[in-house]
Amino acid sequence: MTKEFEVISRYRRGESKRAISRDMGLDRKTVRRICDRFDKARQKIDAAEDDKALEVATEQLVLKRQYNSTTRTKRTFTPEVEARMNRLIEEEQEKTRILGSHKQALTAVAVTEILQAEGYAIKYRTVAHYWAQMTKKAKEAFIRQDYALGSRVEFDFGEVKLEINGHVQTYYLAVFASPASDYFWAYLYAHQKKEVFQEAHVRFFEQIGGVYREVVYDNMRHVVSRFIGRNEKTLNPQLIQFATYYGFDINVTNCFSGNEKGTVEGRVKKVRQACFTKTYQFACFEAACDHLEAQLHQLNQSSRIEEEKATLLPYQPPFELAELHALKVNSYSAIHYQTNQYSVPDYLVGHTVQVKAYPNHLVIYANDQEVARHTKIEGSHGFCLDIYHYIQTFQKKPGALKHSHVLKHHPLLKTLYDHYYNDKPKLFLEHLERYRACDEHQRVIHMTEAVRLHATKPLPKGQDQEINPVIQQTEHTLHQLNRIFGLEETPC
After folding, report:
1. Domain Integrase catalytic: where (predicted)?
2. d(Cα 170, Cα 177) in Å, to the nearest integer?
3. Which of 110, 209, 328, 330 lies at a C-alpha separation of 20 to 30 Å from 284?
4. pLDDT at 459
5. 459-491 pLDDT tens trace
């Protein structure tokens, strides 16, 4: 284009076509063609009788002529090649129907190899060009939505890496976002299990004091139990119960269509960037949760949540989050739940008990009476044992106390037993039983004082240095508890 402009400029200044050709190193035919086109365009402009004719003449003058390749003969991309490539596309569609989402699609390289193996004289670049055109999908058009306040909220999980007490771990953000009010809420969890999924909903509904008419999800396992074909889905029965209780409708997006819940997709990124980009190190998990809550309060300053609250469905009392299980007590007076073991009273060995599993704890019932309560163990192959669950068995088998697994789960009692009651297990059990009815702080005080009071065996030489730090720490704890509960004055 630049050379063409220079040719026309020199021609308009009166230079001959021969001189222009010589000075610019161009073929005389090329120079002549450019100059002749310019002359014809100028003549048409001068002769134009209306605006339309003037527009056409002007375009011929100022617009560069494009080479028309539509009439060029396709030498290697013959109708036979096109038909074969269309059959390959049909085979790909059948493959996708059978396999569903997959990463085994034919590439232009593979198509070239197939065609060349079948005797077609065609090169990769030609195949790549036409394969891309033939398989290109039409771009999707989106319809802008305008939701009423209280009508819709979107849910999703997002990942965030944090350093808690010196340990780096992946945590999960349960995020709700309202497209109408531009309000969003999030909470941190250590995993994405079903109980967390439900608890996040309960927390959110409690926090805003109401329920949205529709909750939108993607195809996560807590929402869809089974896919039937490409588009039909079976919803999770427990989610249906949950939605029935609170009164909201379930809306599940199409597969691979994150845009259908674009509000929460964007809010997950915003929460992660705004809350944990600059600050990611915390002393404890609770500190990270407090930081998230404070940051969300700032981010939601411009939302219309107060206005939206008036449009929400009435709030219901918290949904019962527990899962019910019937589990058999093994010979070690414990139940197995999710690869961990939790103790129950020893008289229940061989019986079946009812377990209510909450997100963070278990409550165990026998004959409709609560018999045990345990904090859930994070991880697997762990034990949560209560020494009082084994009192009756120890009274029959006091010799089993010394090396028992349950005693090792109470390090202070284990240390005191080893040094003071190694040969008096019945007295040790008597003291444990005596203070069973006390509340937690009184039990610690009375049991520790009783053990020391009745300890008559002198320490072996050299072991006093080992037990003294334990006793000193115990005494310090006792003094602190006494002062807290008004049993001892704070020293001046």
Report:
1. 144-322
2. 22
3. 209
4. 44
5. 444 444 444 555 555 556 556 655 655 555 555
CA separation for the pair 273, 266 (Å, rounded): 11
Indicate whether 260 pLDDT > 50: no
Give me the pLDDT at residue 259, please.
Answer: 44
Distance (Å, whole) CA 47 – CA 41: 10
> How many angstroms separate the CA atoms of 30 and 405, rounded?
99
Digit-coded pLDDT (tens) for 80-127: 898 899 999 988 888 887 777 677 788 899 999 999 999 998 999 889
Residues 245 and 346 reside in one and the same domain: no
| Cα separation, 107 vs 111, whole angstroms | 6
**246 and 290, same domain (yes or no):** yes
Statement to judge: residues 125 and 255 lie in one domain:
no
User: Where is average pLDDT lowest: 80-84, 257-261, 277-281, 351-355?
Assistant: 257-261
In the structure encoding, which two tokens stand for residue 83, read together? 């038909």
Residue 70 lies in a domain: no
- Locate 415 and state its tokens: 């240390």
Residue pair 227/235 in contact by the 8 Å Cβ criterion: no
Tell me: do 342 and 373 sit in the same domain: yes
Residue 278 has pLDDT above 80, yes or no: yes
* 101 and 234 co-located in one domain: no
Looking up tokens 């967390």 gives 196
Domain count across the chain: 5
Distance CA 428, CA 452 (A): 11
Q: Residues 6 or more apart from 458 whose CB is under 8 A from it?
A: none
Give me the domain span that covers residue 83.
79-135
If we measure between CA atoms, which residue out of 313, 321, 320 comes closest to residue 209?
Answer: 313
Residue written as tokens 């010799």? 399
User: What is the chain's mean pLDDT, rounded?
Assistant: 79
Torsion angle of C-alpha atoms 31, 33, 39, 44, degrees rounded to 10:
-150
Token pair of 103 as six digits: 């990463």
Q: What is the pLDDT of residue 436?
A: 76
Which amino acid is it at 241?
Q
